[in-house]
Structure formats: C-alpha cells, structure tokens
Amino acid sequence: GENVEQHPSTLSVQEGDSAVIKCTYSDSASNYFPWYKQELGKGPQLIIDIRSNVGEKKDQRIAVTLNKTAKHFSLHITETQPEDSAVYFCAATPTDKLIFGTGTRLQVFP
Amino acid sequence: NAGVTQTPKFQVLKTGQSMTLQCAQDMNHEYMSWYRQDPGMGLRLIHYSVGAGITDQGEVPNGYNVSRSTTEDFPLRLLSAAPSQTSVYFCASRDAGGSNQPQHFGDGTRLSIL
User: 3-state class of B84 per DSSP?
Assistant: First the structure.
C-alpha cells in the first residue's frame, strides 16, 4: 500500500522567513496531493492541493511543488507569520483513500 | 452550513465500556470516513463509507464498528474500549467525485480509556 513520509517533524523559523516541508510517497498511482493545516484543538483544514498533471501551484504565500518522477512533493510558505504556527500534514491518494504523512509542527517566532 | 459535526468533544471511558462517537454532515457528501490521530503517527484511516448502506475497512479497523443508514450520519462504535484506543478521533466527508475531492474534517472527539 501507499506510504507517505514527511520531514521535518518540527520546524522553527523567524517571522518573515520561508518554511519548506517535504513529503515522499511510494505508490506511483497516487494522483492527488493535498496539504492540511491543523490548529490546536481543531480538525485538519485543507490549505492547498495539487493534482498529478501539474508541477506547481501557488496561492498567495503558499505554494506546492510536485515531482512525479522522484515521487516527492513540497509545501513552501513565504513571509511566515505567527498565525502560520500549526501542524501541517501532507497526504496522497492512490485509490479512494487518503494516506497521511506524520505531520510537521511549524513554529513561527515573532 | 455547519459542515462536519462531531459529538461528544471529550469522553472518558473505563476499559470494557462501549460507546458511539457521532458524526453528521450537512453537505450531502456521499463519502465519509473516520480517522484516529496519535502522536507521531499522523491520521490513520479506521473505516470509510462511499454511500448509505456501504462501509469498508481502513488501515486500523479492529475494535471499531460503523454503519451508514443515512447520507448525513456515520457513527463509530467502540464495542469494548481498550486503553490502546485512547486517541483523538476525526470524522471527514467529501463529494463523490473521486479521491481528488477535498475532504472536510470535524473538530474531533478526544477519547481517554482508563
């Protein structure tokens, strides 16, 4: 079955710096790669997603890149702000199920 | 719209007790699923349903039962609670258009088994 690995597990950055979170997947049949943000005491919320026919997608300060050959995808957050502090999850969908990475705790210090 | 609503938000059980975690969505989504979230392990799929009357197992189904009698509701039952089932449980739903449809999550049920 699909296996999604996510790194790093924790990431601390200064406000205004960029943050990058990386994920790899194992099943070449995966064709959809969403990213979720989870704030304390809340459920995960979709922040951006990318489909396998696209290499990059951007939404304001957030971008996602996909390299299908290498089976990895990354989340890039530019000009980080304290409200970006949260746990971020990547996921992949080889079938009708969503397989999650283990999460990255991002802390943005003012 | 309320989205995905989970009840209760918190629950403490004793080993061997049974209980039902409730999940309801008002988006007319065909696909619903249950995950558990444990430290360092991300979210793992317990059971899912592609429509009323249809359920299937995910990665970690043992100790849990589900049923789907209506489109709106997808309850998760713990038959005989064990300490290993202490976790945060999330229900999610999405449209039937395929796995590349965005999933919407509830805010979770925090369950402790003593």
Answer: helix
